[in-house]
Amino acid sequence: MGVIRDAISKPSAEMHYRTVHFGVQESEWGQEGKNRPHRYGRIFRGQASTCDAESYARAIVEKAAELGIEVLAITDHNSVSSVEAFRAAAEGKDIYIFPGFELASSEGVHVLCIYGHDTPNEVLNRYLGALGIVETRPSAGLAAQSFAEILAKVREQGGLAIAAHVTNENGLFKVLSGQARIRAWRDPNLLAVQIPGPIRDLPQEIREIIENRNPEYRREHPAEERQAIAVINAKDVATPADLEDRPATCWIKMSDVSVEGLRQAFLDPGSRIRLNPKAGDLEPERHAELVALAWEGGFLDGVAIHFNPNLNVLVGGRGTGKSTVIESIRTVLGLEPIGDDARKAHEGILREVLRNGTKISLLVRVHRPAVREYRIERTLPNPPLVREEGGQISDLTPVDILPRVEVYGQHEISELTKSREKLTRLLERFVERDASLDRQKASLRRELEKNRRELCDTRNDIHELEERLASLPALEETLKRFQEAGLEERLKEQSLLVREERVLDSVPERLAPFRDALDILKGELPIERTFLSEGALKDLPGKEILSRANEVLAELEGELLRVACDLEEALKRAEEGIARVRSSWEARKRQVQEQYEKILRELQKSSVDGDEFIRLRREIEELELAPTTAIRLNTAPAGSPPVWQALENLSTGQKATAVLLLLLLESDAPLIVDQPEDDLDNQFITEGIVPRIRKEKRKRQFIFSTHTANIPVLGDAELILGLSASGEADGGRARIAPEHMGSIDSPTVRALVEEVLEGGREAFETRRRKYGF
After folding, report:
1. Per-residue confidence band for 419, with pLDDT thresholds at 50, 70 and 90
2. Domain final residue pick, 222, 252, 279
3. Per residue in 278-300, pLDDT tens?
4. Are residues 474 and 325 in the same domain?
5. Does 78 share its domain with 130?
6. Is the dihedral of CA 67, 73, 78, 81 positive or negative?
7. Are residues 371 and 239 in the same domain?
8. Which of 6, 146, 439, 487 is deepest in the core (most CB within 10 A)?
9. Residues 539 and 449 in one domain
């Protein structure tokens, strides 16, 4: 993968999850984890300290590096004396240290105070002094300020305050009550609280408050529709081994590891915070993704993009190459446009912008059945080819690797709504596949064959077909003329040959399920037994008993290998037998065909086309209607009784609305759409599309191009790519400046969005009003 990797660097301002551990004194929270400095065991737990500060810090940092924890917040109680040891221990490692402290307000409410990682110790001590803590060593004294005053003071100092272990004895919900608790909860400077597990496990009273369902506690700027504030998990970490406990960390998505990065995550937790799986949430979900894309030649010559696994948005003025990027993805994947207009637009970009000779390289990553990367290359006008990780050419096609990937060009979604057959494709993802369906269809065909002659000869059935197929009466009339000419009997054997061929063609369908079963069986062998290996069981007292399971699985593996071998041989013999049957039948067919051709020559003398008779007979008997789909959209306002309207009765925007909502559901494959807002109004994008994107991007990669700001800003895009161009497409060049690659947290990216996208400032204002910053 060297060529494409060398051409592409990951944007530094791109948002991605980082494992964080916050140091708290009585409980911690996960990927914003908590570190208990080494004195904590001695001072607060009555335990003896086992090492000096430097050794303790090194041990914690080394364990964090081993576990992939990227951020440690050091919050000793009323003290910052341990911070320098952790800073020294983290030097040369990819670990950020947030300095800070934990203190108790004048009411006794515990608060975590986090500051920028470059804040000097003497400044941190001044911050403590400003809060009424003058003792430099860890202590349990109360601060001079109230909870609300601490929140305001810490923000003024440039830090971030978090209400610690709010359900415990020294937490907000235990210490405060009545109006004091309501005021504290609704304080705009309170952005995050620490809870011991998932929200659903909280006591009912507290859960209703956090889910913003208690009107007395309702916050003016809730974090999400059903979440009043950002929540984090944590547990005490007194020793390096404590970091191995999954609830000790959580995931926080940041483009820049900073206090401001944390603040943005707390303001938008639905998009940026994931609690630890063992704390009740899901680890960021793994899904198929486009990793990187690069061009050699054409309008985008030398341009390279490293995509984010979640929401990517291409922005730029007219003619900067946004649609070219989308159509390049379609091209390298070997996908065809669905609509006629989309096909014309696609072919125009291929011909005039990309041009023959341009090479497109796409790096993709799949996670099932195991993590694997492939490089797909296409040099126009040649077909795409797939390379394995080692560079060797694979027999796989792009569709084999990404079977459900979807690409839609400008207005293609709107064009899609005009065809019921094409809409049917969208619903396949919602239908559970029945492995026996092919067998059922083959059986049904055989039953239909038994009744075919009767159906063709029954007038009532012909009338039924007339209602379904407008052309059938004309076919029937022509067939009747042939019958009156005496062709029925003279060409009887040739007509029956059509039926025989259908019977023979259905035979392989009977073998297909067994071939599929063989492939599944071979794919599951050898049986994974690493978890029963001697090394895996060495520390378990019952290892001798458990090791017997390894022997059982090994024996099963051997038997299954023999079964697979026998089944493969049986299928091979069956296929060879069927081949011999077909060979014999082909000989018979040739004999019938010779007689048929002789009759045709005789019929030519009477100006009768016998071949057309056979074609008509085949067309009537072999009629197979393609499935179609009827889609209805509820057009009633929220909270009103549903009003379902058929898709064909809707406006263009409503049609595109219904289809785009379907596209956003039930798939883990990448979805690439060029300017989805073209056929939608901004209100629907804001209220319908963006919330769905925010939810689905956890488990699916999106790549959109757009000329409005709602999707990248309100969708909290992990990666925004700003394209610019010089000259026209047929001779100019496009580029993506490094400063225009990143999230909206980047000042240069934000300025670009406000400058080039419609409604840029309005979108940021909407976001500000929602989150109150």
Report:
1. confident
2. 279
3. 544 455 678 899 999 999 998 99
4. no
5. yes
6. positive
7. no
8. 487
9. yes
Same domain, 67 and 174: yes
- 150 with 103: CB under 8 angstroms? yes
Residue 420 lies in a domain: no
DSSP 32: B
Does 678 lie in the same domain as 571? Answer: no
How far is C-alpha 198 from the chain's CA centre? Answer: 23
The model's pTM: 0.68
CB of 568 closer than 8 Å to CB of 518:
yes
- What is the number of helices (H) and of strands (E) in the chain? 30, 23
Which residue do the tokens 């943005």 mark? Answer: 264
Residues spanned by the domain of 402: 289-411+667-771
Q: Is 147 domain-assigned?
A: yes
Rounded to 5 degrees, what angle do the CA atoms 372, 288, 299 make?
Answer: 95
As a whole number of angstroms, the distance between CA 753 and CA 765 comes to 13
CA–centroid distance for 535 within its chain? 36
Say if CB 37 and CB 84 are below 8 A apart. no
Residue 376 to residues 326, 395, 408: CA-CA distances in angstroms? 16, 12, 19
Instruction: Give the whole-angstrom CA distance, residue 200 versus residue 206.
Output: 10
Q: How far apart are CA 627 and CA 624, in angstroms?
A: 9
Token digits of residue 472: 């059938």
Residues 202, 111, single domain; the answer is yes
Domain boundary among 279, 307, 325: 279
Number of domains the chain contains: 3
3-state SS of 126-186 is HHHHHCCCCCCCCCCCECCCCHHHHHHHHHHCCCEEEECCCCCCCCHHHHCCHHHHHHHHC
Inside any domain, residue 431:
no
Residues composing the chain:
773
Domain with residue 335: its CATH number is: 3.40.50.300
Give a yes or no: residue 417 inside a domain.
no
Cis peptide preceding 747, ω within 30 of 0: no
Same domain, 460 and 545: yes
- pLDDT tens column, 213-252: 999 999 988 888 788 999 988 776 778 888 887 777 888 8
376-408 confidence digits (pLDDT tens): 999 999 999 999 988 899 999 999 999 889 999
Task: Say what the pLDDT of residue 397 is.
Answer: 93
Map tokens 């639905």 to a residue: 270
> What token pair was written down for 322?
């946004």
Using N-to-C axis directions, what is the helix angle for 437-457 and 610-621, rounded to 10°? 130
Distance CA 758, CA 707 (A): 6
Q: Closest by alpha carbon to 138, among 46, 238, 38?
A: 38
